[in-house]
Design a protein that fits this description.
Number of helices: 12
Largest sheet: 5 strands, antiparallel
Strand order of the largest sheet: 4-5-8-6-7
Number of strands: 12
Structural class: alpha+beta
Strand content: 15-25%
Shape: globular
Bound molecules: flavin-adenine dinucleotide, iron/sulfur cluster
Oligomer: single chain
Order of helices and strands: EHEHEEEHHHHHHEEHEEEEEHHH
Distance between the termini: 51 Å
């Protein structure tokens, strides 16, 4: 691991001012915020991330979960994943989020990992994490060996000829279905970014993963007021029952009026290059009977644009079954 300067800023303004001196907030950033460290320190040990300065934000007052003015929920950036998943309001009103967080990593990791860090966790593509290999995300212009190589776990939605890496987060999938907003403070002021606009598709710049600029500090995430009467579920399918990333997952927030679906918000994990909202599936459900035939139709709509790689075609049917089963379990 390269040597680095460790800084503990006294407040958010000092943290932002120092981070704003970085040349990028994306891959290769020379200044990084340090939260739980469960992504960043791993990547530093592998020399995939080599920041010259680390800004420890753990003592900033960003660790509260509070009711927002509009009746929604405000989740501080440094709230630990375990505290988020076990918070009484989250368990009651945003159950899909609690389930998604608990489906991720291990108890020890969740005790360290934070809300903002989870939003910014990096892909598990094996080539990205191996500096002996080329990788457009790590070193722009070097190529993407995954396309002709090992791609079983990689994405089938949102890919480009330059990168097919999967976004690995479970939490983000639930937040996409809950229509979360990410709040950022930077050197030019604060802004609120809907989660659907926060992560970028790889296109021809896979090293740019989010809209963050140097100095941008995520301060909190807000969730809209809970959808009255909604049924929520997160279903994660993976190679082993715990401590494993999703091959396919589905977050479902569905409301019924009698036998019919009146509202549906759906997102998929494990299959997209970003947390994948599925508006086609939502449209296929609303106004229709909540039955297995329509759940399957919605799942087919969600995966209509999927493009398999040499080793991951199975993910398309797996994701369809995952979503259809999640919908069935949610309304059951
Ligand atoms: C073995 C293992 C298994 C895992 N399994 C899963 C899994 O199944 N599902 C899953 O979803 N995740 C999984 N994870 C990933 C884990 O959830 C993330 O590592 C964790 O959420 C990152 O949070 P952190 O606070 O530790 O982030 P850090 O490592 O501290 O930071 C990550 C990135 O976010 C930036 N950052 C942090 N806070 C802020 C902020 N406030 N503003 C701006 N930038 C910020 C940092 O600079 C860094 O670039 C696993 C991790 C490991 C190591
Ligand atoms: S899929 Fe993306 S992260 Fe993986 S090797 Fe290709 S460019 Fe790198």
């Amino acid at each position: 691991m390269k040597t680095f300067e460790f800084i503990r800023p006294g407040d958010s303004a000092a943290a932002i001012a120092t981070a704003a001196q970085a040349k990028t907030a994306q891959q290769g950033a020379d200044v990084r915020f340090l939260a739980g460290g469960t992504t960043l320190i791993d990547l530093m040990k592998l020399n995939v991330e080599t920041p010259a300065r680390l800004l420890d934000i753990n003592r900033l007052p960003l660790d509260k979960i509070e009711t927002a003015a509009d009746g929604g929920l405000k989740i501080g950036a440094t709230v630990r994943n375990s505290d988020l998943a076990n918070h009484a309001t989250v368990r009651r009103d945003y159950a899909v989020l609690s389930q998604a967080v608990l489906a991720g990593a291990s108890a020890q990791l969740r005790n360290m990992a934070t809300t903002a860090g989870n939003l910014l966790q990096r892909t598990r593509c094996p080539y990205y994490r191996d500096t002996a290999m080329p990788c457009n995300k790590r070193e722009p212009g070097t190529g993407c060996p995954a396309i002709t190589g090992s791609n079983r776990t990689l994405a089938v939605l949102g890919t480009s000829e330059h990168c097919i890496a999967t976004n690995p987060s479970d939490m983000c999938v639930a937040m996409a279905a809950l229509e979360a907003t990410i709040h950022v403070e930077g050197s030019k002021g604060s802004r609120a970014i809907p989660i659907g606009d926060f992560h970028l598709l790889p296109g021809n710049t896979p090293h740019r993963e989010t809209v963050l600029e140097p100095g941008d500090l995520i301060t909190h995430v807000t969730l809209p007021p809970p959808v009255t009467g909604s049924k929520q579920l997160y279903l994660k399918l993976r190679d082993r029952a715990s401590y494993e990333f999703a091959l396919a997952s589905a977050a479902v927030v569905i409301t019924l009026a009698g036998q019919n679906v009146s509202q549906a918000r759906i997102a998929l994990g494990g299959v997209g290059t970003k947390p994948w909202r599925a508006p086609e599936a939502e449209a296929a459900l609303v106004g229709q009977p909540a039955d297995e035939a329509n759940f399957r139709r919605a799942a087919e709509a969600a995966m209509r644009n999927a493009q398999p790689q040499s080793h991951n075609r199975f993910k398309i049917e797996l994701a369809r079954r995952c979503l259809a089963h999640a919908l069935k379990m949610a309304v059951g």
